[in-house]
Amino acid sequence: MKQLTIKQLFWPVLALSFMTFIFWIIIQADLGHSIGFSKFVRHLPFGDKLGHFFLYGILAFLVNLALKNRKVAVFGHQILLGGLLVLIFAILEEFTQMALSTRDFELWDMFCDLLGITLFSWLALWVSKRQN
Predict the structure, then answer these.
(1) In the 8-state DSSP scheme, what is residue 79?
(2) Has residue 38 been placed in a domain?
(3) Is the CB of residue 97 less than 8 Å from the CB of residue 31?
(4) pTM
(5) How many separate domains does the chain show?
(6) Please, are residues 122 and 67 in contact by the beta-carbon 8 Å criterion?
(7) Domain annotation covers residue 1
(8) What's the CA gap between 63 and 16, in Å, rounded?
(9) Residue 23 lies in domain
(10) Distance between CA atoms of residues 97 and 123, nearest Å
(11) 80-130 pLDDT, tens per residue?
(12) Domain-located, residue 18
């Protein structure tokens, strides 16, 4: 049985760690708990939107690199699988907010998610090309 090297585990471990961080933020928000991070973000102009852009963008970056920028065909277009998975997660998470009194559903949040996922997915492609 072949053992994975630290280099092979780097991006997947980082992606899982960051995803765990995002899950923690989501759970805290769903429960109506205000954490230091969210308090800081709320005081910034467009802080919530920047949070969506960067959190989901960074997650897409890490997941794409963990999946070695694997692509899938969607409606005849090649799309990065990591970006697609993160987008689906972000959309589902945003729609679940409709059922919670502690959260607000906003299309602008999904737009910022999409923007971050797109930009950081391109960045993952660029980083991969630079590493090779």
Answers:
(1) E
(2) yes
(3) no
(4) 0.89
(5) 1
(6) no
(7) no
(8) 8
(9) 6-131
(10) 29
(11) 999 999 999 999 999 998 888 888 888 999 999 999 999 999 999 999 988
(12) yes
Tokens 């090297």 found at: 5
Task: Report the distance separating Cα 109 and Cα 70, nearest Å.
Answer: 26
Side chain identity, residue 84: L
Domain assignment present for residue 115? The answer is yes
Q: What is the DSSP letter of 98?
A: G
What six digits make up the tokens of 65?
Answer: 């690199």
CB contact at 8 A, 61 and 123: yes
Tens-place pLDDT, residues 91-104: 999 999 888 888 88
- Residue tagged 């759970």 (tokens): 27
* Predicted confidence (pLDDT) per residue in 44-57, tens digit: 778 789 999 999 99
As a dihedral over the C-alpha atoms of residue 127, residue 82, residue 87, residue 104, rounded to 10 degrees, the angle is -80
The residues facing 89 across adjacent strands are: none
Residue 44 DSSP code: S
